[in-house]
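explain this:

___
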Amino acid sequence: MDPVPVRCLLNSISRYLHLVACQTIRYNPIQTRIGNVVHLLNLLKPFLDEVVDCKTPPDDDCLNSACEDLDSVVNQAREFLEDCSPKLSKLFGVFHCELLLEKVQTCSLKITGILLQLSQASSSVQGVERCMEEIECFKQERTLTEHINNALRNQTDDNDDLDSIIQMIGLVSNQDLLKESIAVEKEQMDQLIDLVSCIREHMLKTEFLEVAKGVSTPPYFRCPLSTELMVDPVIVASGQTFDRTSIKEWLDNGLAVCPRTRQVLSHQELIPNYTVKAMIESWLEANNITLAVNSGADASSIANNMGSNDFNRTESFRFSLRSSSFTSRSSVEAGNGFEKVKINVPASVSKDFEIFELSSQEQSYTHSRSESVCSVVSSVDYVPSLTSETQSLPMNQQSYSEASTNECSVQTMMTSHTIKLVEDLKTGSNKEKTAAAAEIRRLTINSVENRVHIGRCGAITPLLSLLYSEEKLTQEQAVTALLNLSISEVNKAMIVEAGAIEPLVHVLNTGNDRTKENSAATLFSLSVVQVNRERIGQCNAAIHALVSLLGKGTLRGKKDAASALFNLSITHENKARIVQAKAVKYLVEMLDPGLEMVDKAVALLANLSGVGEGRQEIVRGGGVPLLVETVDSGSGRGKENAASVLLQLCLNSPKFCTLVLQEGAIPPLVALSQSGTQRAKEKAQQLLSHFRNQRGARMKKGRS
């Protein structure tokens, strides 16, 4: 019998080798890995030629199946080469090549093992054995995948794996880092996006950026996206500050999420951060640094104007920069329109600046990979005390001393005011308690510093006690103040340690619509932290209350509950608990496009399909037809998650696989495999490959 699968494989290998010979990829790490793939295929090819040339070629189903698997991998490798472009993420390119190389090695070993069993002549046996041994002994250098896994596990300042990745990928300039950030975001691979975020933070912490000889740029004046000195700092919808040139390039590439918090940007307006700009100008003036550039020039052009020796990197600088500046929807409802705030800037900046803080009742929030509640405006994450700066400056810098004195006065007043508020929360009348909670809510709308300060002054415990108040207004003000405080990373642990879970569940069960929404949003905010996810998940009442809101709440309440449950479902033990609380029934209902909940519902279902109970409930609840419909006509993210759920169903149950096929899944999956996001394409291709394998197995069983 003519060995068709072997012939097809040889044809694919020849096409691939020809394409490699014609290709001119200049990026060495990818070249090296492609060369390794070529090496393995060249080892195997002579033995496949012998099979085809044999007068009585072996008709072996295992060999045919193994050749089909390798044929699929080689075609994937060919498609990668054909699609390869200078704009491709270097990280993704190397990562993908390593995966392909590993698959080629695995399939080649399987084929040589089968050929060894089929060989009759001793000379042929010896040749196959040598080939098999060489393929088996082939080892990659320490792979990028290993470095990535180690780097994400070991997120410390002394992270050798991150340094190795930076060297391996060749991120030699700030512009390289910006381009790679944009390219990785377009690939939509969570692991690589997290890695690039770690690299940016690592560079901010460990690399010393000099703008003049002996003068280093403070990290809080550097753009979190490009790590360069911010020339024109602007605020995006998430509340984060970036240099205009860098974030504009990010947005111009069609990216609609914050590079730092990962939340979807509700708008793409860039609001000038006059406070940070004034501080940078004052710092430059204090250090006698003049930037001879035109307005609107980017940071890289500044570097060129300063000369190659002015931007020096050393390994001696360590600085921790953490971001938690996002603002709750309910907080901004306290204000209306624009609130004008006067801020006194040091005398060296000649005039006062007016900061406009946007407030909007329409502000909402959604979950993403590391979701946070939306914020409209904030400034830099952390600015050191001006008092400490004054000690190291020349005596003629009186402006800093004046600013330091003013700041101390403000801080003293703030502390006194906070202590009074906490006392009112503890011992005041009902009216005073409500007013104090409302004032804390107002103070924590946009201020990162106020959240931390008020949390440390002991406001959390008395606010929690107010959640049991029979006065709905008091309950609402208290839960919203806690929502604002929970945004701070410092406060998340303190709130849970103070026993917040039960009071928040009480509000979910007894409050009005607004308080229920904000209680769910608070649980969502707290569940960003792994330990908190575990503690909230261990409270069955919390999960049941969230599921109840998911099924019976307002649209906003449903979204808040879905976001909180999504975070909780990241912890494996919580998946079964959420399923047992009957969440799947409501989530399947939400797959109806008319309910505006498809993306959130299918994202949570993708997590819950990771456990057997979840898969059973999805099928039992009639989810398969709606999932196929989502693959066909949903959003990009919705299609990806729907395909992920279907893949889990099919891989774990032939019965479910048959059901998916009966619902007509193949046409939309074929379309998705060609035009979806990178992850969606992979899921669709896995499903289609699984369908082919299942069909082949049934045909083989029928013949036997």
Q: What stands out?
A: The domain at 594-703 is CATH 1.25.10.10 (Leucine-rich Repeat Variant). The first helix runs from residue 4 to 22. Residues 422 and 459 are 5 Å apart (CA to CA). The longest strand covers residues 338-343.
